């Protein structure tokens, strides 16, 4: 019997316009879509912290916790400070220490956005 699929939409961004959910859970796996901070005027540290916290809220909405996070991906726009992003990641998830990929991309959609994060979790 196939696993039930549950979706979480937070009403932010382009979920309806682009046809996606903030997060999807199938079985034990929770995948969180690329997430940016609400305030694009914040610096790299602030945007990273806010985006990670929003992604963790999506994990929680589908029954997971930050301890269930297996992998994070941090995409940085040109001009973003990777060390500030790393410090924010350590603050939010350092005690969990998930697998992580951080990379620079050509740019992010939306003015002023420096950071976009994705999260994958495996919940009970």
Can you tell me about this structure?
- By secondary structure, the protein is of the alpha+beta class.
- 27% of the residues lie in helices and 30% in strands.
- The chain contains 3 helices and 6 strands, in the order βαββαβαββ.
- It has helices at residues 15-18, 44-61, 82-93, and strands at residues 5-8, 23-26, 29-35, 69-76, 99-104, 115-122.
- It has a 6-stranded mixed sheet, covered by helices on one side.
- α2 (44-61) packs parallel to α3 (82-93).
- The chain is globular and about 45 Å long.
- The mean pLDDT is 95.
- Fraction of residues in β-strands: 25-35%
Instruction: Give the topology string: H per helix, E per strand.
Output: EHEEHEHEE
Number of strands: 6
User: Largest sheet, order of strands side by side?
Assistant: 1-2-3-6-4-5
- State the helicity in percent bands: 25-40%
The Cα radius of gyration reads: 14 Å
Structural class: alpha+beta
Flag low-confidence runs.
none
User: How many helix segments?
Assistant: 3
- First-last Cα distance: 18 Å
- Based on Cα principal axes, name the global outline: globular
User: Can you give the mean pLDDT?
Assistant: 95
Largest sheet: 6 strands, mixed
């Amino acid at each position: 019997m196939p696993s039930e699929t549950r979706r979480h939409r937070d009403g932010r961004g382009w979920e309806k316009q682009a046809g996606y959910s903030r997060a999807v859970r199938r079985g034990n796996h929770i995948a969180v879509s690329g997430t940016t901070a609400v305030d694009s005027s914040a610096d790299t540290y602030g945007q990273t912290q806010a985006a990670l916290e929003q992604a963790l809220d999506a994990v929680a909405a589908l029954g997971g916790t930050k301890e269930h996070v297996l992998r994070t991906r941090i995409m940085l726009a040109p001009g973003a400070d990777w060390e500030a992003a790393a410090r924010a990641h350590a603050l939010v998830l350092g005690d969990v220490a998930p697998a992580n990929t951080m990379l620079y991309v050509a740019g992010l959609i939306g003015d002023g956005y420096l950071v976009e994060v994705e999260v994958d979790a495996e919940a009970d």
